[in-house]
């Protein structure tokens, strides 16, 4: 059990999904709850890793100091050594736990399934839901690129159906849009996958003396899909970074970086490939929006750190300016779009674009603080945005519309709910003391300190800082229009948030505060170790590359 | 942590605990009781504050009391070095003073609120919001005290935002009223604009001073100036604007000050404060008069050591402008709370102005005195409003002194205090008199005596950056003089001040060097405050007289008027505070706090109460009879209070008719109109900012729509087709999206195209097949041949 | 009196080929198209035999191959005619242009 | 007796040769049996089908036996009068393909039984034609002599023409078969003409020897090069017709739409696969013996045609309303993907050729499953919908009869090539093979393929949308258990193969290795290759005697 803990957590939801196909209809949701709940509990067991030692230290001994590792050879054709290789480190651990947590709450949020407008196929719904959870968990823990890719794509189909079958009026459109965008991102990743394998083979052949493996200690002799190997093996890094390494006559690192980046940028998402997000979020049923915003977007950021920057730091250096522009545009444009919305859910969706812009900004400046900020921002957003989406869902269940301007005074008719709403939205506004703030502050500071490296960094930081004003603008405005003001007749009778809803909101709200007050103990301690090592390695590689370029 | 720090922390946490209690059980605790819960919390804070204050005053070696240990909240990484953000209790004179003042004032206001809200809290809706009000108040108390005790700029910022939040919640307490929620939003967003600058300042501090700790930052700042390294060597591009060295340092200072501009409602961000009066009156008293708005001044005081001469000058200008325009607007207000609001703005302007000209202790002194009498007056107005059933129009009041004597006379004390009543020459007067006098005295010194005293050998480089660069000093003495001078008038204690001046320091080259780097204050910046010193007594007297004296103008109002003990008891306390807060009590502490809060050698001691160590560094005002600012001021404004109040009395003693006639005078009418329109700031902002944003949003939303709905397809003129075809058909929907749409379109187009050959006629198939074959063959030959 | 050489055969074969292709493209009658096919096939046959003869191969592969081709052509023709019949049965014509229901 | 045996002329096959080609003999036997069967056992569909299955089983038995033999004794050739190459070959590739065809035949028979058997009274003819074409296809893969190739292609084609027009009373069916027949006849004729020219140039039709002597001729440049190129291209046309490669694909959609669905399924996989493997074998033998100088040209040609084929196939499938026609185009696209592998093959210098062949083998296996499943569902559905093969006929299928819709979903998504279905793993092998070839051409091909994947998603998903996202009031379709089992088996196998893909890949590798490739021998009686090259040029073709005197 213990040495297979990760696998259990990853596949448990799927098993539960298979089970619920054979239970009577009324038991289905309980089986689902049990599945995702058990996954969450088991993921809490992972904290055992840190008993009697500070987490940063536990993760900090070497980049790729992994825990709960499982490796087994999987596909060996074509001289491949594709492995079933999972494990956690500081990068994946927080996101992994976040995923199980958000999924559990989303599962709980699906409990009023029967009262939905479209409530056919409850078994199908929960099965796909749990399949989706397995896919997401797999992405975060798989350390073999091929495995990563498989999990990455496994999520597509369930999400497609969850949006397309149980979504809003324009669900087909939103669903296929999501599908096509994501696939468009991942097809080039597939080419990158192939290229990396054969180029790493060339690399170890070219610099056999440097090709010492990080976990066997013996020299690597073949190409590899091992993400950690790809990013830590000196030979591979040297060869990938060299200007002489080209593919289709383009320098290898930047090209590969782009191949991977496109996929992750679409998932993140950042302008201009964000347009799938508002539709998907708005059309998806509430629990799925929670999953989308809470977890799926994070895969983009995770992919940046683990693959783009882990394996092609030189590419990161190459594209930094471009990415910063995109990031800043995402922040400001997303905020402005949010301000322009009249659909409550769409507003929250656009706020995600804006917030994820901070993630990209923090990453692309390649400073430790920036990375930490980006990671924290992802976690924080993973807490606050599901909360916001659920808050929207709650009133949608009651009012059956999402027109901001038709609401008003809800705080009066639903005081308890109103307070939670204020908490949630102020958390996403980035109010100090709540989770949204720390990430943004880190990203800004991290960006600003990149000035010596990139001369545009100061400007970028300031433009991003201006985002906080816009954010305050649209959040306060929506709070005023929906929750404040005199209560309208038709909403007077709204029932207060019921027990189930509070059961979902309360933990999220509590975490909003906890993460804001104790960021170190709740998040940073678990990832700083890995992030520092990652950034060190990135620096060393880029310096080598620059030296080579200079010499 | 030492006892004092612990106590301060307890004092901070107590209201938070009460907040939690009220948040979770408030609705059960019920109406009067929840108020007392909150009072209990703040009372604990007051207890701690008093104990600490007593201990502090009695302590001999105060430096020993200063906090040393801190708690690493997070550990940042800066250029590879670990840089913790520490939570550390800032324990020094300033904190202690402010802490005490805040807890005292707020205790009074909490008690007052119980009485006040009993009548007001139910009107929100069916259910009682009573507990919610005290919930917010407690949260505010926590944030405010936290702000005072945090020694790191970062934590300052955090609590800074939290008080902003509380003010948002409390202004919008009657959020079912549109104007209330509007005002709340206006307040928060305006503050955010200021905080944007604050953030910029923070980033500069972080990257260039490499610490958030106030003292450490100041040390690094001077160090960097000494070696011309760090920020002084920096050279960066911001928004395509090249800026470097001293200019950058100035930018940092101004950035930090922007935060203060937001919170202390300085021009041009002053517009939110008058609207903030939409909140319950106790809130106006506590947050928007006594404490939160003063936080801006407190911030400037804290970061004073990071301000370059240019930055200081900027601050002085802003303060000067603010105090002038707002005082003028106050003249014509007819809503009693609005008058007080504008007078608050004006007084804040005085404080900021004082900071700008270097009157560090004086400005803070004014802050504290003002806190007391302004809170008192607000509560008084609250009493009036409560008594008169929410009538705020002074034209309908009058003669209320009979109905509410306590309110009347406490209010009058406030008027005297703010008017700066005192007997010039003989040092008798209310706090307002001394504090304002000191600020003006320093301004005078900087205006008239400066060049004679220091300009001698530094005529031409009174200008910040160049000055400091050219005079980039080598020896450590001069290093410390990165161009900051704190002046404190001796408040007329001639011999001490004379000691300051004649004690050889007049021509002390070191002090002269620093002082000379300060800007000479232009004359208008001295005379505007002077004029306002005449205006202030006028409009305050007008306000008081219109409200309490004369004959009742509205019988109905008059008959309702009454006052309740729960509400006038605090007034008494505050009135006492107003007296005590006069010269004797706070001023010396502040003078001494200056020692720790500023580069020690530059502090100008007052009355020789500074530890001997700093003695030889004193910089006093000039005191030869010809130049003595105090002497000069006696003539200039000594009896301003008399003039102003007298004039008001003359105009308003029998009702409003005379005032009306004056108003109708041709030129006055125009001025009056302008002032009634608040000098059009709101209009300008509405049209420019709000309108501008609306325009941008319109553009964006249109952009968004077109982007989402048909994007480039629209450019292709297909937009309408798209929407028409919008029937869930994958091919259309799948493509309906900007570039993707274009791709889909073209792909379909190509799809159509490649299907054209498939005519169904076998002969064509053969033909095409053959042709294709020939083409491919040609291609092969081309390839193989080449 | 010039001697008939390989070239002439090749030219004839080529002519047959081209004409055959031309017929296939232009004829609307199914049978006509089949005749075109036959012409091409026979062009091939001529080539095979001629090459075998003039390039002085030791074996007779060419001839044998051409025999195979003839057989194939026969079988093909038989089947083709049957299919044409079926076509005619369904469409009452052997004009191939009428068979354009399947298109796009 | 012994002398009798001595009397046996030299050309008469030896017993061992009979053994080697016993599968073909068994196959022919089966054909004759089924043809004669009606005389004995009547025309009952079940009986005939049973008989066919028995015959298939016997054939399979012999095939396995021969596999055993050659696994010990190596690939064999035979039935060869004189030339080294051999008319027929029994090696791993051909035998594996035989087995594949046999299995596929069984599948098709089951499908036919469950769909058309009821209203069909021409069972014997159907099976004769079916198995006849199967035999032709298996012969295609077991030769590299152009004459034999021509015969085999015709052998495969003629029954196909007939079977396409099998339901005689349908107009489109007749039309389809006519078109198919004419197009086939034309291309066969062209191919034969090309063959005749090649014979003229090289005096032989054996690819090995052609390859051995082609170098100098091409090196000679000018008219010879042109003519040889023309001739070879003419031969290529014949194969391209079977593969339905652009621009020889025109017959494909029409024929597939007009034919019975199970026939379409059969042709879409079997004939294309046969054509491809034939092409690869020829090109392999040719290039390995012809040396590097001709490789690049051939590679480019095939690559270009492959690109055209898959792109055109996907684009044209866009707006189809008939699902059969859509799948026909999709089959064109997939043929294009597989041809890309053929392009690798010719780069014999850089890759072991069998990587490419094994890629295609694996692809064919999975492709067979996908198409069998997809067309199977189509057949079952349209048999209940009165031959309505429009996509909209699938509306709501997912909710009325999931037992059909879900395998359909699996097959379609697998056709797109997305995890977790086997279509992905085969596409992955293809990309990997391209990547291994490591040259710009193949990277470009890889990118073309992934982009085509993206394009193809759109039209496959149209069906999915109809099945799951659309409502319909149609009652559930009840279909024979056998058909349902068949399609579900295909669907499940697709997942199983993704998870355990090693066995597939290992077999593909094993059976693609050890091709029969004889040592090239120059034509002794023609003198050296260059003298041959001189003897052929057009200018002195006119006077062969002189040439002979010269020689």
Structure commentary:
The complex is a heterotetramer of chains A (551), B (786), C (104) and D (551). Chain A has helices spanning 5-20, 28-45, 55-60, 92-109, 122-141, 145-154, 156-166, 171-206, 227-232, 234-241, 252-267, 276-283, 286-311, 313-340, 344-364, 368-399, 410-413, 415-429, 435-448, 457-482, 489-492, 499-517, 519-550, and strands at 67-75, 82-88, 246-247, 250-251. Chain A is mainly alpha-helical and 551 residues long. Chain A has a domain at 316-517. Chain B is mostly helical and 786 residues long. Chain B has a two-stranded antiparallel ribbon with strand order 1-2. The longest helix of chain B has 35 residues, at 681-715. In chain B, 59% of the residues are buried. With 551 residues, chain D is mainly alpha-helical. Chain D has one domain. Chain D has helices at 2-7, 15-20, 22-41, 45-73, 92-115, 123-141, 146-164, 171-202, 207-220, 222-243, 251-258, 261-290, 295-316, 323-345, 353-384, 397-400, 402-416, 422-437, 440-469, 481-499, 502-512, 529-535, 538-541, 544-550, and strands spanning 76-78, 88-90. A two-stranded antiparallel sheet of chain D has the order 1-2. The radius of gyration of chain D is 24 Å and the shape is globular. At the A-B interface, helix 8, helix 12, helix 14, helix 16 and helix 18 of A face strand 1, helix 5, helix 6, strand 3 and helix 30 of B.
The main β sheet of chain B shows up as:
2 strands, antiparallel
Under the CATH scheme, the architecture of chain C is: Orthogonal Bundle
The number of helical elements of chain C comes to: 3
* Global structural class of chain B: mainly alpha
Number of strands of chain B: 6
In CATH's first tier, which class of chain C applies? Mainly Alpha
Spatial separation of the terminal alpha carbons of chain B: 86 Å
Oligomeric category: heterotetramer
Q: State the shape of chain C.
A: elongated
- Find the CATH topology of chain C: Helix Hairpins
What's the structural blueprint in terms of helices and strands?
The complex is a heterotetramer of chains A (551), B (786), C (104) and D (551).
Chain A: H1 5-20, H2 28-45, H3 55-60, E1 67-75, E2 82-88, H4 92-109, H5 122-141, H6 145-154, H7 156-166, H8 171-206, H9 227-232, H10 234-241, E3 246-247, E4 250-251, H11 252-267, H12 276-283, H13 286-311, H14 313-340, H15 344-364, H16 368-399, H17 410-413, H18 415-429, H19 435-448, H20 457-482, H21 489-492, H22 499-517, H23 519-550
Antiparallel strand pairs in A: 1-2, 3-4
Chain B: H1 3-29, H2 31-58, E1 71-78, E2 81-87, H3 93-120, H4 130-149, H5 153-171, H6 178-209, H7 214-227, E3 235-238, E4 241-244, H8 245-263, H9 272-275, H10 281-290, H11 292-302, H12 309-332, H13 336-357, H14 360-387, H15 405-419, E5 422-423, E6 428-429, H16 431-454, H17 464-470, H18 476-479, H19 494-502, H20 509-517, H21 523-548, H22 555-560, H23 565-580, H24 583-597, H25 612-615, H26 629-637, H27 640-652, H28 657-664, H29 666-676, H30 681-715, H31 719-724, H32 730-735, H33 738-755, H34 762-785
Antiparallel strand pairs in B: 1-2, 3-4, 5-6
Helix pairs in contact in B: 1-2, 1-4, 2-3, 2-4, 3-4, 3-10, 3-14, 3-23, 4-5, 5-6, 6-8, 8-11, 8-12, 10-14, 11-13, 11-14, 12-13, 12-21, 13-14, 13-16, 13-21, 14-15, 14-16, 14-23, 14-24, 15-21, 15-23, 16-20, 16-21, 16-26, 21-27, 30-33
Chain C: H1 6-26, H2 30-54, H3 61-91
Helix pairs in contact in C: 1-2, 2-3
